Every structure is written in structure tokens, then in C-alpha cells.
């Protein structure tokens, strides 16, 4: 029995060691990646943004401003174009993933269990602590008094085919119906 415990401890220790080694490796990789991104950023800025030298005269300064405005406009157009391209590719990706989902077949719904839940419990589950209204569904029902008027009685008696069904059943009932002229 103690032999198995020693094996388990060794396996656990090995697993912990591997886990810490993997985490250390991941940390170094992340640091390398961040340094590479920083170098790439510096190279891009050096290539696309030359150092700014401010001229002395007013005329040259105005020319520089015009050039900068033109550059800003071209960058804005470029940014807009790339945004539109990104939106198009995202839409295509969405469509393709939907097609893939459709091609895979029908989505099987998991078997759901019926749960008896009152309206209050349902609202409490949906809204959480915001739920303050008590919903007693039967409390707001209108009380109705049964009043039979003569007209309603006549309509019901004429329209009710079940009326006197016992009297009309069998041979005696048929004889009565024949004699009554029904």
C-alpha cells in the first residue's frame, strides 16, 4: 500500500515539475514576443515617420503643414479601406462558418428536464435581486357572477344537443320523436 502512495507522490511531483517548467517556458516566450513586437514597431516608425525638422521661415513651415495634411488624408483613406476590407472578410467568415454549421447537419438539442417553477421563481432567476414584484397570477382575475337570462337559457336549450338524450335513446325515444314530428 505504501508503495502505491510513493508512486502517486512521485507522479504528482513530476506533474508539478512539468507544469512549472511549461509555465517558465511560456513566460520566456511571451517576453521574447513582446521584445520582437517592440523592435518591429521601432522599425516601422523609423521607416514611415522620418524625424521632424522644423524649418525657420514661415513659408517653409506652411509648406510642411500642407505636406502633413496631405499625409494625414492619405493615411485616413488607407485606414478606411482596410476597415472596409476587414468588415468584408469578417462577413465572409461568418457566412462560411454558418455554411459549415449547416453542412454538418442538424443541431441536436440536449434532453431537457421539466422543472416546475412559479412565476416568482422564474422572474427571480432571470432578474436576480432586481425582482421585487410579486406575481400572483390568480389575484388579479375578475370575479364573474353567473346570471342566466331567459334569452341565454333558450339559446342554450335549443343549441344543446345533449338535452334529454336519455329520453330520445332506444325504441321508446324514437317513437316519441316520430309522434312529436321531429
From TrEMBL:
One Pfam family cited in the UniProt record for this chain: Troponin
UniProt GO MF annotations: actin binding
Domain of life: Eukaryota
Keyword vocabulary terms for this entry: Acetylation, Actin-binding, Coiled coil, Muscle protein
Coiled coil: 27-106
GO terms for cellular component: troponin complex
Matching InterPro entries: Troponin (IPR001978), Troponin_I (IPR050875), Troponin_sf (IPR038077)
BP terms from Gene Ontology: cardiac muscle contraction; skeletal muscle contraction
The protein's role, per its UniProt record: Troponin I is the inhibitory subunit of troponin, the thin filament regulatory complex which confers calcium-sensitivity to striated muscle actomyosin ATPase activity.
Family: Belongs to the troponin I family.
Assembly description: Binds to actin and tropomyosin.
Name by which UniProt lists this protein: Troponin I, fast skeletal muscle
Name of the gene encoding the protein in the UniProt record: Tnni2
